[in-house]
Amino acid sequence: MKHSQSPLKHVKQTLEQMKRLSIVYADDIAFLGTLSIQEYYDKIKNIPYKFDLDSKGNLVEILQRPLYTLNGQGYGGDCDDKAICMASWAHLNGLPFRFKAVGKTLNGKLHHVYPEILMNGQWLVCDATYPHNTLGYPMYDYKKVVTYG
Q1: What is the CATH number for 123?
Q2: Residue 143 lies in domain
């Protein structure tokens, strides 16, 4: 199983690894590459959310390639794993993408990440974390934002 090999220490390192996994393993989703963005988004958002837990049940941060998220294998199916899947679709289709790490308050921690894909000259929010999310809209009006990519 291919996932992050060492603990991720800061946001930039996490976002760099997410971008790397999205590009290097884009072929994991090649069989879905011809789906429209809406069809693919709907598929990803309906993958059950799964916290990253170690063997003792402790919450950890683990990134994994799209294949494992799509097949329900591995450690997770959380926001970063689904963001990697969406970014892989963008890469496979030759579209620029970036990630946004966000927090609900300016002074609070960054607690969520989602991708944006450049389509028709505009950045499209592609937060497929939960089934109730809608393509093109963030879940909240985030106050703290770090953009990478």
Answers
A1: 3.10.620
A2: 11-148
Encode pLDDT of 71-115 as tens digits. 988 766 899 999 999 999 999 999 999 999 999 888 888 889 999
Which has more pLDDT, 55 or 121? 121
The DSSP code for 4 is -
Residue written as tokens 């837990």? 53
The 10 Å Cβ neighbour count of residue 23 is 15
Does residue 90 contact residue 128 with C-beta atoms inside 8 Å?
A: no
pLDDT of residue 140: 86
Residue pair 29/92 in contact by the 8 Å Cβ criterion: yes
Output the CA angle 31-35-37, nearest 5 degrees. 130
Give me the number of domains the chain comprises. 1
Whether the CB-CB separation of 114 and 129 falls below 8 Å is answered with: yes
Whether residue 4 contacts residue 62, with contact meaning beta carbons closer than 8 Å, is answered with yes
Give pLDDT tens digits for 14-71: 999 999 999 999 999 999 999 999 999 999 999 999 888 778 888 878 899 999 999 9
Angle separating helix axes 37-45 and 79-92, nearest 10 degrees: 160
Residue 3 lies in a domain: no
Side chain identity at residue 117, one-letter code: I
